[in-house]
Specification:
Oligomer: single chain
Order of helices and strands: EEEEEH
CATH architecture: Roll
Mean pLDDT: 91
Shape: elongated
Largest sheet: 5 strands, antiparallel
Number of strands: 5
Strand content: 35-45%
Low-confidence stretches: none
Number of helices: 1
Length: about 80
Amino acid sequence: MCLGVPGRIVRVWKREDGATMAEVDFVGEAREVCLAYLPELGPGDFVITHMGFALTRVDEQTARSTIETMREYGVLAPESGSAA
């Protein structure tokens, strides 16, 4: 099952084969994501990904609201340093 957790792009680079890649922070877990469908994105942008591809850009407010809702419903762990 895919959860659609928003992630923030930390850095972008091109692989030797020309694919645009990004390191994306998903609530403290870094993953490599392909930006083939959204090559204009850069550090600081928020994305929703599936199967290693960024599919949708979301604004920061939407990303933070989605993450908070997922925490409220127990889908994501509470934020580090938060009281349980």
